[in-house]
Amino acid sequence: MTHDEQQFFKELGARIAALRKEAGLSQQAVADALEIAQQTYANYEVARARPAVSMLPTLAELFGVSVDERLGLHRGGTAAAAPHHSCKSRSSA
Questions:
Q1: Can you give the pLDDT at residue 13?
Q2: Residue 83 domain-assigned (yes or no)
Q3: Residue-number span of the structural domain to which 12 is assigned
Q4: Is residue 25 one of the residues assigned to a domain?
Q5: What is the number of other CB atoms lying within 10 angstroms of the CB of residue 28?
Q6: Structure pTM?
Q7: Is residue 55 situated within a structural domain?
Q8: Residues 33-57: pLDDT tens digits?
Q9: CB 19 within 8 A of CB 65
């Protein structure tokens, strides 16, 4: 994982934690909604693990934000910094 990706997931985890707290939810409540263990969810908040993309809509709904806001792509109508990944295909060696 690149430095930019590591930083992105650290920031994503911090956003998850902040949104959860703003919503007044416990880690266990969010984990239950995602049908995962509380410790797995806790690892997302501190970037020890990466949430599956399929979880993003559920998280956005729980926290009352869009998936873009959840990813940190938009805040108050402005784009926030997020790593840009090109869609170049990788050839097998």
A1: 95
A2: no
A3: 3-70
A4: yes
A5: 12
A6: 0.72
A7: yes
A8: 999 999 999 999 999 999 998 998 8
A9: yes
DSSP string covering 3-65, please? Answer: HHHHHHHHHHHHHHHHHHHHTT--HHHHHHHHTS-HHHHHHHHTTSS---GGGHHHHHHHHTS
Domain containing 18 — which CATH number?
1.10.260.40
In a domain, 11, yes or no: yes
Distance CA 80, CA 86 (A): 18
Token digits of residue 26: 């416990």
Question: How many separate domains does the chain show?
Answer: 1
Contact (Cβ atoms closer than 8 angstroms) between residue 69 and residue 75: yes
Q: Which residues contact 52 (CB under 8 A, 6 or more apart)?
A: none
